[in-house]
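Give me the fold.
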Amino acid sequence: MSFILNSIFITNQAAASSEKLLDTLGLTGLVSGATVNFYDTNKQWDSVFIGSKGDCKILCNGNLSLGAFEDDNPLLRLKDCEIAAVIWNETVGNFGFCLIKNGKIERKTMVIDGDIEHDYGQAIKEELEISDDELFEPDEMEEILEMEGRKGLERMIKSEKICRTTNNIVKRYLGAGPGQTHQNLT
């Protein structure tokens, strides 16, 4: 079974009411449901799950997470906060994140099945900390170079960095990356 995570982390919002936050995002008319385990939210596209950890609200919904990569998305309405929308889908090899600060997209990058779909903004700390040399073993790099050429190797390096950075973005907010043990959200 492949792991899927479609989450949005919003800082400085833990004290805000969930209803007000959802209204600001245009998500009205929702009906409150049962409390669920965080892992039960990972493949949902029709439901919105909302929880918190520390000073962070966490929304789980595939459409909202994917929509964050659009230039005109409702998350841009939120000010005085940092937002990280994460897409992690091992089934189709789709990994990426969109960082929004004070209503402006600062960085968005996504890879789908090895192809870079989004690459906007400056590399962030988590990206810069990843060395090209640590991504593949030397013999594996040589094999990729022989089979894919220099451009293919560069694309694979960039794709792997996006994947690892996405994992590190999740760690920033949850303390553990996708597929690792998480504490329950409240």
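Residues 180-186 have pLDDT under 50 and may be disordered.
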